[in-house]
Design a protein that fits this description.
With 316 residues, this protein is α/β, with parallel strands linked by helices. 37% of the residues lie in helices and 20% in strands. Helix 1 (2-16) runs parallel beside helix 2 and helix 1 (2-16) packs antiparallel against helix 10 (267-273).
Length: 316
Amino acid sequence: MKICKYFWLVALILMLSVQVSFASDSKPFAIGGAGSGGGYYVLGGVIGNILTNNGIQARVQTTGGGRQNAVLVDKGEIDFGFTNNIEVNEEYEKSKNKNIRAIAPAFPGYHHFVVRSDQPIKTVRDIDGKIFGLTARGSTHDIAGRQVFELLNIKPQRIVNADRSDSGNMIRDGLIAGYFMTSGIPISSILELETNSELRFLPFSDEDYKVLKSKAPWLTEAVIPAGSYKGIKKDIKTFGSWNIIIGRKDIPAETVYNILKVIYANEKDIKATYRSADLTKEAINAVAVPLHPGAVKFYREQGVKIADRLIPDEMK
């Protein structure tokens, strides 16, 4: 049913999208998404269709997620991809190629630490000594969750890596105390889990804020608002990091500029398909890697002041 709904939305967008047509490319651009049905894949699908409808051939492909997308873009094996600041910063810093360039903000990710409400766990630090899930190994969730545990010196008895569905089943069955995910609000798998499980969302303390802000500047203070989920009666203090669109630095600047023109001309339709999407232009200054020259040109024309650290070497 969800798949049918998604394709109907894409079909509607193809009929209603704003036309900013350009000459067709002979080979479609490859956009790295993630697993089918996930936020990256849905966003990549709708953007790919909008671009194609405007003469810029593009298609989304399934990948292992944000970390793999950063690696594939850096190696030149895909043209564009979705990733999280945490992952792309890590890949860029160790890369010899330095082939990754930021294109656009996609949506802010919010850290969700979730446990069954009957567990004696009230804060993130109470996870120490417990069996806890971080969903799929190597995923954005796994990397970000382990990072928080390391920085706050939290040592779970055991970390369990499984997909979202299996992780939810293990929470219901009491095999794990809870799990961690980072994404836009709301996360559909958590909404689904709430239909037959009472959940508690774990906050960070003021002291946690101080520690993480000093050790992990790529993380930003965030709040999961009351009412976002059935189990949240008051705002939950958490952290977040932006999910962004990246691309190869050797893609012509004019092509990237034209792609951004199409994306922002159809911003409302993109958000209608994935409501967590947030293409706020000023948020481009929150990305962790240098911008593509075509992106610098586009955002400057939109009146956005670009931070010096984001100007790529090829423009200096």
